Protein: Outer membrane lipoprotein-sorting protein
Amino acid sequence: MIFKMKRLLPVIALFFISFTIQAQNSQKARNLLDEVSAKVKSYDNIAIDFKYSLTNPKENLNQESKGNVIMQGNKYVLNFMGVTKIYDGKKIYNIVPEDEEISISKFDENEEDAVTPSKMLTFFNHGFKYSWDILQNVRGRKIQYVKLVPTSSKDERKEIYLGIDVQTKHIYNLMEIGKNGSKTTITVNSFKTNQPLSKNQFTFAESKYPNYYINKLD
Structure:
């Protein structure tokens, strides 16, 4: 019995050491994400140019695109995949030049499932387990990765890797791995803050689109 206990003690000790290290790494990751959130909230506005890619070898899918977004609070103007989306704080305006069509709808940004560009910079605050991942050197910048695993079994994402610039505390890139084998990557090419904006930056002007069909959904 004593012999068995002597054999078990190192295993138990190793378990507690491993558990302690894991807890410390999780807290380090949480602390870094808190710094990112605080930094985002400190700016009057943010302008981002980004690259988007989606791949899924099983479905022979390989898609790439570029976009840009300007945000101030929850208001934004997003240009992505040939569509301009404006949110003025009350309504969303989807402008599709190819079809010369505009759809207008109400939007409650307080809804739990509501997705806005500003929330994409702070989405990680709830619903994930965190762990400290690798540190990479990207063209002279130190990018620290944090691994996020959704706590909900209904989430279609298997895991997410968030790359954070160690010096600026800005998000460099985000990689989502889906349960279906898909991989979505958003890489920030330019991150500017507190830019001089027009007072009409987030205002939809119907007069600019005289020949467009306007579809009011609400």
